[in-house]
Model the fold of this input.
Amino acid sequence: MKTIIVPTDFSDTAYNAAAYALSLAPALGVTRIVLYHAYELIMPIPDVPTSIPMVNPEDLRASSLDGLEKMKKELTPLLAAGTSLVVRADNTILAATIDDVSKQEEADLIVMGITGGSKMEEILIGSNTIDVVKNTTCPVLIIPGNTTFKPVKKIVFACDLRKVADTTPIAPLKKLLAAFQAELYVINIDHESRHFTTDTPFETLMLDTLLEDYQPEYHFIDNPNIVQGIVEFAEEIHADLILTIPKKHGLFESIFKRSNTAKLAYKTHIPLLTIHE
Done:
């Protein structure tokens, strides 16, 4: 892994996520971190009196870059030797263009913060983060607001065991697991085997074949609440990271609906890594 993008709105939550990314970088072999701010210039509204001042786009960009340089200066003491910290600002909507930006920067990972604080913070910061998850093919690591970095030694991979071969992003999954070199716990959350089918044993075998290099430990948990089941298991084993694949169709889709304000991300202090199918 070479490059991490850290989108920022200059909030405390964003600063915390950036600090986490800088601390994580050496363990992943990352040599470049991009602090990224997407600012949106509001276009003039027809029939509004011209006496109302409009924002100069150059002033807005300059202000964005000033904020990024200030953030860079404050974070530089955390930067590991051999890792560069660069800034980028674009006049755009973050969720609409983050996938293009990640490809342009050849990013391996996006790191963003999320807060479980006030409802307004959840709406402004949380929904923005979840919109990024939904609109990029790049893996996204979500850092809860008060979480500080510690080495990733245990990963919980929450899997729904459906169409494993077709929906598992094998290359990025193996790339990340190889980079972390952590103990891997694969869990399936179900209740009274309601989602168990004749294909489940085969799907489990398929997943085990894909993950054989990482010697996973499997756990099947009976819980009517998927989010609660994941969080309780992760906290019980003192996991350092939760990994999910937010599929377009499946048990975990509801976790990432914006209207649900990303229940899993809000209910745990453990960083959440999402990789798209």
